Automatic annotation (TrEMBL):
Residues covered by the Catalase core domain: 43-431
Ranges where the record places region Disordered: 1-62, 408-448
Catalytic center residues: 90, 163
Keyword list, A-Z: Heme, Hydrogen peroxide, Iron, Metal-binding, Oxidoreductase, Peroxidase
Catalytic activity of the protein: 2 H2O2 = O2 + 2 H2O
Family: Belongs to the catalase family. HPII subfamily.
Protein name: Catalase
UniProt-listed InterPro entries: Catalase (IPR018028), Catalase_AS (IPR024708), Catalase_clade2 (IPR024712), Catalase_clade2_helical (IPR043156), Catalase_core (IPR011614), Catalase_haem_BS (IPR002226), Catalase_immune_responsive (IPR010582), Catalase_large_C (IPR041399)
E.C. number: 1.11.1.6
Organism: Knoellia aerolata DSM 18566
Cofactor needs: heme
CDD domains linked to this entry: GATase1_catalase (cd03132)
Length: 705
């Protein structure tokens, strides 16, 4: 008998089973599909139709849940096992599909089919990442960015697993676990995550002078990119091209963003992390889904043994670059990212990059870091993906035929035909299995190797400071100021003064002014210089190393935050929107309330964001257009005041139109507006503003230079 407390039985038919097909915005593809199925009916993993997905099976209306409810148990069982280990480094990432198109045949240099002829297209998948943070960390950490590309070539996958910085912290892979342990959360407390600004990282870095060059890049604005779409990529190591005749040349790979390089400033990065921790992934997703496909040109630096021998540094040392001024970067193709993933886990999380994936025509060198990576990447995939058959996952599977005698294993999805599963065998036809390709296979470059077996660091790897100095001296004043400020910030977060001092002592070997400015910023006396393992080699500054020196005059791919108050001149709003869109930018309308603002002509302009949720750090430039009533309302709104103050502090070009005086005043900017604060109320003003935003930030406001 039901008691008084008994609740009425819930709906017998669940919403999911009854209404799902009508509710779906897409084609139902978000449901897990059984083979060949486009079934609108919810099923178990084994295909049985599910009667009710809202109520588990119970004895009596309020009784215990029954073990025989296999559909419920299967659902919970699967859920309990949803997570796989995140990557030990580069855990946080985002990716997309694309295509690489070769500009010219490189067959004189390499037999790699990607470079076979002009116009040749090869499918790609790219994953960008931060290094130190966990999967759920924020995008704008000061960190190196991974830039890993899988080319599905017709002779097997080529994984170019690079970074957005062309050098690395260490010279030998045996130090990689130490490096990573030093930068990750400290093991006794579990913080800080996603940052190098703590004792253990700088302890390690200061004790490993070979990392100095990389720390300069890491302290530069390269480590806080505006967008994945606006950063370079590098293969880092020296690789080898091998042509059909078996002749080899050294090669370094470069990705150059078509939108040009751009970074944010540190104070902005800190705030973006709070306002939108997904800033970079959202940016990539938005651009691709809007059809604004990001592109990079692939460049190669090709050089022979004679250059390598004459070069002041060892080309096998990953803490060194080959300056573009010495070996120009030759553009050989363009990659376009044109498709977002359908499922983040299936594709971005399960993609398995491996440096050892090289097709015929591309080979390794003896860079000890690369040699170590060639072991690590295969090993790590087994840990993460749990089966030796991870190469069968759609995102990892080669697009060319695959035929081998490896068998079975967890989650084998291919039904391998044939009788013989060994080589050699004497079977014929389809029973005999694949045969070796011989000279058509991946033939290793026949390098001569000799010498005693020893644990030793070659003398040619000893110079840790000359290229660090070259990098610093190649930066503009503003960029040097940012590097100094970053060292001061990071070392200032170290609680152990001896660590700060040891790092500054190393920096004296890079540049005396750099060390003095960092010491001054830290409020400490300048320590004696540490002993360098090798004397400095004089290097010419390399203009290619500066971001600002190479800035592209464009607003393409950038975003305007258009803050509109009630009574704003409708024509002025339209002009700004049109001008910025024509310049290749996007416009996001912001108002005091997300419902929008009423313009001078009485129309309602819908807003994408309320100002409280859209701080100006999310935009490359801002415009405020308002009538008198709206102007006062904005001045009274703290988020609107911050919007303007921050835009000014971050050196952004600002457009102002209508009744903005009260807001300017409340933002503390009265009397401070400069020539990058433009009046945009008139047609001429809007034109001047659109022309100005293609240019640099207003660096004259930057006092750190
Ligand atoms: Fe990696 N690195 N790495 N690394 N790395 C990994 O592989 C490793 C290094 C890079 O988006 C891991 O699948 C060693 C240099 C990228 O999935 C792991 C050494 C460069 C990604 C690993 C290095 C990179 C990784 C972790 C020192 C720039 C992300 C998860 C010898 C050229 C790929 C994984 C993605 C990921 C090992 C140094 C780039 C553990 C041992 C130098 C972009 O295998």
């Amino acid at each position: 008998m039901p008691t008084k407390k008994q609740k009425p039985a819930a709906r017998a038919t669940s919403r999911a089973t009854k209404d799902a097909p009508q509710d779906h915005i897409g084609n139902g593809g978000e449901l897990h599909q059984v083979a060949g199925g486009d079934s609108p009916v919810l099923t178990t993993a084994h295909g049985a139709p599910v009667q009710d997905d809202n109520n588990s099976l119970r004895a009596g209306d309020r009784g215990p849940t029954l073990l025989e409810d296999h559909a419920f148990r299967e659902k919970i069982f699967h859920f309990d096992h949803e997570r796989i280990p995140e990557r030990v480094v580069h855990a946080r990432g985002y990716g997309a599909h694309g295509v690489f198109e070769c500009h010219e045949s490189l067959s004189d240099l390499t037999r790699a089919s990607v470079f076979a002829e002009a116009g040749k297209q090869t499918e790609t998948f790219v994953r960008f990442s931060t290094v130190a943070g966990n999967l759920g960390s924020f995008d704008l950490a000061r960190d190196v960015r991974g830039f890993a590309t899988k080319f599905y070539t017709d002779e097997g996958n080529w994984d170019l697993v690079g970074n957005n910085i062309p050098v690395f912290f260490i010279q030998d892979a045996v130090k990689f676990p130490d490096l990573v342990h030093s930068v990750k959360e400290e093991p006794d407390r579990g913080f800080p995550q996603a940052q190098s600004a703590h004792d253990t990282f700088w302890d390690f870095a200061s004790l490993m002078p070979e990392s100095t060059h990389m720390t300069l890049w890491q302290m530069s604005d390269r480590a806080i990119p505006r967008s994945f779409r606006m950063m370079e990529g590098f293969g880092v190591h020296t690789f080898r091209f091998v042509n059909a005749a078996g002749e080899g040349t050294f090669v370094k790979f470069h990705w150059k963003p078509v939108l040009g390089m751009q970074s944010v400033v540190w104070n902005e990065a800190v705030k973006i992390n709070g306002a939108d921790p997904d800033f970079h992934r959202r940016d990539l997703f938005d651009a691709i889904t809007a059809g604004d496909f990001p592109q990079w040109e692939l460049g190669v630096q090709v050089f022979d043994d004679a250059f390598a021998d004459a070069f002041d540094f060892d080309v096998l040392d990953a803490t060194k670059i080959v300056p573009e001024e010495l070996v120009p970067v030759r553009t050989v193709g363009t990659m376009t990212l044109n498709r977002v993933v359908d499922n983040v886990f299936a594709e971005i999380e399960q993609v398995a990059f491996m440096t050892q994936n090289v097709p015929p025509g591309i080979d390794f060198t003896n860079d000890p870091l690369l040699q170590g990576r060639n072991f690590s990447y295969l090993d790590t995939q087994l840990k993460r993906l749990g089966s030796t058959n991870f190469s069968q996952l759609p995102v990892n599977a080669p697009r060319c035929p695959v035929a081998h005698f490896q068998r079975d294993g967890h989650m084998q999805t291919s039904t391998q035909p044939g009788r013989a599963a060994y080589e050699p065998n004497s079977f014929t036809g389809s029973d005999r299995g694949p045969r070796e390709a011989g000279p058509d296979g991946h033939v290793p470059f026949p390098e001569q190797v000799e010498g005693p077996t020893r644990r030793i660091r070659a003398a040619s790897f000893r110079d840790h400071y000359s290229q660090a100095r070259q990098f610093f001296l190649s930066q503009t004043d503003v960029e040097q100021g940012h590097i100094v400020a970053a060292y001061v910030f990071e070392l200032g977060k170290c609680e152990i003064p001896a660590i700060r001092a040891r790092m500054v002592a190393n920096l004296r070997n890079v540049d005396e002014s750099l060390a003095a400015r960092v010491a001054d910023g830290l409020g400490m006396p300048l320590p004696a210089a540490s002993e360098a393992a090798a004397p400095l080699v004089e290097t010419e500054p390399s203009p290619a190393l500066s971001i600002l020196g190479n800035a592209k005059e464009t607003f393409e791919g950038r975003k305007l935050g258009l803050l509109v108050g009630d009574g704003a001149d409708a024509a002025a709003v339209k002009r700004v929107q049109k001008g910025v869109t024509k310049a290749g930018g996007t416009v996001e309308v912001i108002a005091a309330k997300v419902g929008g603002a009423t313009l001078s002509d009485g129309t309602l302009l819908e807003a994408k964001q309320a100002v409280a949720g859209a701080p100006s750090v999310l935009y490359d430039t801002v415009v405020v257009l308002t009538g008198p009533a709206g102007g006062q309302a904005l001045a009274d709104e703290p988020a609107a005041r911050d919007f303007l103050t921050d835009a000014f502090t971050h050196y952004k070009v600002i457009g102002l139109g209508g009744s903005t005086d009260a807001l300017v005043d409340a933002a503390g900017l009265a009397g401070k507006l400069d020539d990058a604060c433009l009046a945009v109320g008139t047609a001429a003003g809007a034109t001047a503003y659109v022309a100005r935003i293609a240019g640099p930030r207003q660096w004259s406001r930057d006092l750190s230079a």
